[in-house]
Amino acid sequence: MPTTVAPRAKAPAPSRTYSRWAALVVLCAGTLMTILDGNIVTVAMPAIQSDLGFSAPGLAWVVNAYLIPFGGLLLLAGRLGDLVGGRRMFATGLAVFTAASVLAGTAGGQGTLIAARALQGVGGAMTAAVVLGMLVALFPEPREQARAIAVFSAVGAAGGALGTFLGGALTQAVGWHWIFLINLPIGVAAWVAALRVLAPDRSTGAGRGPETGDGSKSDSGPDNGAGAGRGKGADFPGAALITGALMLTVYVIVGAGDRDPGGTALLAALALALFAAFTVRQARAARPLLRLRLFRSRELTGANAVQVLMIATMYGFQYIGALYLQRVLGYSELATGTAFLPAPVAIGLLMLGLSARVVGRFGGYRVLLAGLALITAGMALLGRAPADGSYVGDVLPPLLLLSLGFAAAMPALTGLAMSGVQDEDAGLASGLFNTTQVVGGSLGLAALTTLAAARTGHLVDGGSELVPATADGYRLAFRVATVIAVLALALAATALRPRHD
């Protein structure tokens, strides 16, 4: 359910050849496709597992293979977008994503599907990294910009839950392959529309000299634009380090139950070493992906830490909640998708109609705490879900609480994150905020699914029946997610407390 935050950008010169609102539709459509595909596979998981023979922990990689390159490449893709142009990067990302979707839809084995999902993540990062900068540039007037961002945020926030419904409908009607193949006509149409509607690219980053890790200019001389097409200044080693660190971290969590403790500790140490190398690289690189001085902002650092915990909780709910409906309550794919429909409806309506007003009246800090409290309450209710539960009594109430809490917390958290950021750092801060959403989702999903699978396997090995054991495993995951939500609430209450209080 994650949404995104827009960086500030300079407005382009007005053009008679395209409509700004038509451009907004194209940007929303392209982004919605990538967001939907991050979640559309959730309901199709049992069908994919049965068809391709995934293990329970390995099945999570169908989601994580998309999320990890998506999150790891956002900062690099944003930098390349500055160099080669937003429209070019957006259109190329759509093409990569669409081609990868066809590969995933025709996959006949585990390796092919996971590789295709990873390629989808690359295309999704290329698309998402430049969209918000283009949107803000299209709508420089504050009132119109607020409307445009509200529309875009609602599309993004509701898109994740809407993907669950579409995944269920397509899987039951024509098979799981079509959750990917449906992207072919949509992607081609969006690509053609992008080339026709979006404003032509103008160089935005080639004329500046490279910056050091602390944001100062280097003495290497100006970039005259000759290197833009070659990606001059893009920190490929930094992107490789952070993507490798994230991938290895998730691998350690997913496979922890299948290897000896010594091997797990060794891999975890290697992941930490990659994170450390990335930090050193960012401090020394001429054009770092992430200027480390951003972390001097208490609001930005605290908000990103809170977001990792909050999104980990929400992703766990989406994934494991769908499996609970199917494997415990016996819902079909279509029924499961329909059961999730109240979430995108509630989130979209609340974000468009109430969030800005509520934050304006009560302040972002108070609204954030209230939203996190609702998320905690919703997860606590799910932690009681029995093997013989019902949708109305055991799923719908926490679903509504989680939706209401997320719709309140996300805009408030976004505002708090950006409140302590200088204008020249707004783009990087936005990229960091978007990246930690994906990191939180990936790590939360890996940890919670691993815990649930381990608990279920232990009970089945001890003689328990499969359905009660599965329900018990999911309850454990929901309870751990509740603890994560409590930690997010406690961290927000302390780290983001207004200075004047």
From TrEMBL:
Domain Major facilitator superfamily (MFS) profile: residue ranges: 23-500
| Keywords, ordered alphabetically | Antibiotic resistance, Cell membrane, Membrane, Transmembrane, Transmembrane helix, Transport
* Bilayer disposition of the protein: Multi-pass membrane protein
Q: Which GO terms describe its cellular component?
A: plasma membrane
One GO molecular function term of this record is: transmembrane transporter activity
Keyword S-adenosyl-L-methionine attached: no
Q: Which CDD domains match?
A: MFS_MMR_MDR_like
Q: State the superkingdom.
A: Bacteria
Report the record's Gene Ontology biological process terms: response to antibiotic
What is the name of the protein in this document?
MFS transporter
